[in-house]
Amino acid sequence: MTPLWSFYERLLPGRLVWPAVTLTYMIAILLLLLFARVPVEQIIYIDLN
Amino acid sequence: MSVLDYHVFLLLSLVCVPISWSVPRAHAFDAVAGWTALCLVVLSPATALWLTAIVLGLPKLLAGRDARRGPRAVLAILLLTVGLIVSRALPGWAWIGGAFFTLRAMHVVIEWWMRRLSAPSLRESLHYFLFLPVLAAGPIHRLPHFQHQLRRRRWDPQMFFTGAERILLGLVWFYVVASFVLVQVDARLAWYLSDVADFWSVWARAAVSWLELFFAFSGTTHLALGISLMMGLKLEENFDRPWAARNLVDFWTRWHMTLTHWVRDYAFRPLTALTRSPVVGLLGAMLVVGLWHEFSLYYVLWAMWQSLGILLSQLVNRRIGARWRRSWITAPFGFLAILAWLSAARPVIELMGVGH
Asked: pLDDT per residue over B66-81, tens digit each?
């Protein structure tokens, strides 16, 4: 059981947990496909120089 | 000059997952260390050389007879500090993760000095330092915890999928929220504030960059911890909902926790014990945090500003905090007050003529 599964389990009836988790994953993947950008500025906590 | 892209590093780190499960258990982390060394040799020969010196040199320096622990520990810490200073003075050599593995090595030396840790063997040193997922962005995990995780490591589907979920979250935080959404917000804000006095516009944009920093850094932390979970290791967390903090003291115990714990244990407590002054301890600890970020006058002043914030926060908390603690108003007020203080560092320091 992942943290997202536990989160939805607390809020939703049992039969809705699986669709909610799948939908969240799909939205995350869609966001990545549509809006993901490579950072233009150097981020101080990423020590790649 | 060669600057590596984080996604190259991320893809190479993900390769550690199949390596760790396909190689027989007894040698899984020898293989991970070998893969890490190979990646470093290709991506950054300078870092490979520096880290090899630590991996081989530390067990040698700390092993053997018990006498002269103090001088040996001081020598090791001096060498590690010189290594970090040299890497900072020579940018463009594609250094990877020096800020993180230097603190890991110092932790091993100090714990050995305090007799809380025995000298690591060469193999333990290899496993601990040559662990690619945490090399570029932490966390600054501790050796005893890492060894405990290696010992109790077993295949656990729940852990594996929790790791995969954290990777997905980390990707969204880093590549969408920090690198796209907040960059757009910053650009709009710059446009709206084009007529506003410099001080206020720098302050507002610094607040956005703190949020950007949070999503970028917590995103990379999710990625590092997610990959580790997929390999069967549960490493130390770096964030504990820092924006839910009630005041600045609370904030610094929730932000980049592995660094603040390191600084608490190895700078704040010894300095406070030596001087019997928590204020000196705080100033020294924040100075270490500032200089760890960057060797510059800006970060010295930044450390002073954040120390002042913590002292004021303690004062306010002592005087009126008790009355406000249970109020529902304090949650958003606390968040805004913390963000305002943190981001005010940039315009205030720029007023002194020191640029970021």
From this structure: 778 899 999 999 999 9
- The amino acid occupying position B76 is A
Measured from the Cβ of residue B18, the count of other Cβ atoms closer than 10 Å reads 11
Distance spanning both ends of chain A, measured CA to CA: 38
Count of beta carbons in the 10 Å neighbourhood of residue B340 = 12
Q: Which tokens in the block code for residue B96?
A: 């990877």
Count Cβ atoms below 10 Å from residue B116 Cβ, excluding itself. 9
Q: Would you call B176 an interface residue with chain A, using a CB distance cutoff of 8 Å?
A: yes
pLDDT above 90: residue A45: no
B168 to chain A: nearest residue by CA? A28
Cite the DSSP H helix spans in B231-316.
Answer: 248-254, 257-263, 269-275, 278-293, 297-316
Inspect the interface and report whether the beta carbons of B98 and A1 lie closer than 8 Å: no
Total beta-carbon pairs less than 8 A apart between chain A and chain B: 90
- Give the model's confidence band at B212: pLDDT under 50 very low, under 70 low, under 90 confident, else very high: very high
Query: What global pTM score does this model have?
Result: 0.93
| Residue in B137, B176, B181 closest to A47 by CB | B137
The span from the CA of B208 to the CA of B214, in Å, is: 10
Gap between the Cα atoms of B166 and B169, Å rounded: 5
Average per-residue pLDDT for chain A: 92
